[in-house]
């Protein structure tokens, strides 16, 4: 299961091998275009500096909230209120759509700009905690990785972001055991 809020949080990329290198994907136009295409945000066009700065602010807020969930805690009232502000910055209007003989009532954003994108990303967090299972949010157990994911495993036992981290840690443990056979 994928959520736009997880993609945003993981746009601050840390090398899982622990080299200390990081990548700031919010400054990478190609990454932003792929992200916008994937989530249906292309109509917002290219983000300006203010829009990118706001996304970075939202990312920091979402990381705090997701890490709280991963630790079995609840996001604070201040964090919830900040998330509501982000969603509130993009007003929607009710529109009755008539197609053929049927009608649909739709909630349509007043403008499809980067405030709307930020509101949609914030809303993906709100949907995760209301329609899905917030206790499945995890931060990769590799301490240098920081990747956040939604654990869909049946036994809720997934601890690693992807096989690379799992394999990396297995190899490391194996080497430690060989060096120090009595320790485990
Ligand atoms: Zn990882």
How would you describe what is shown here?
With 184 residues, the protein is an alpha+beta fold. The chain has one domain (4-179): Jann2411-like fold, CATH 1.10.3300. Helix content is 47%, strand content 15%. The chain has six helices and six strands. It has helices at residues 4-9, 29-39, 49-70, 77-88, 114-131, 163-179; strands at residues 12-14, 22-24, 92-99, 102-109, 137-139, 148-150. The protein is elongated, with a radius of gyration of 20 Å. The two termini are 36 Å apart. The mean pLDDT is 93. Zinc ion is lined by residues 16, 140, 142, 145, 147, 160-161, 165.
Globally, the shape reads elongated
The radius of gyration is 20 Å
The distinct ligands, each listed once, are: zinc ion
Q: Which fold name is given in CATH as the topology?
A: Jann2411-like fold
- Compute the average pLDDT: 93
How many individual domains? Answer: 1
Q: What percent of residues are in strands?
A: 15-25%
Helix content: 40-55%
Discrete helix count: 6
Count of β-strands: 6
How do the helices and strands follow one another from N- to C-terminus? HEEHHHEEHEEH
What oligomeric state best describes the polypeptide chains here?
Answer: single chain
- What's the story with the biggest beta sheet? 2 strands, antiparallel
| Class derived from helix and strand content | alpha+beta
The CATH homologous superfamily is named: Jann2411-like domain
* Regions with little confidence, pLDDT below 50 for 5+ residues: none
Write out the strand line-up for the largest beta sheet, numbering strands in chain order: 1-2
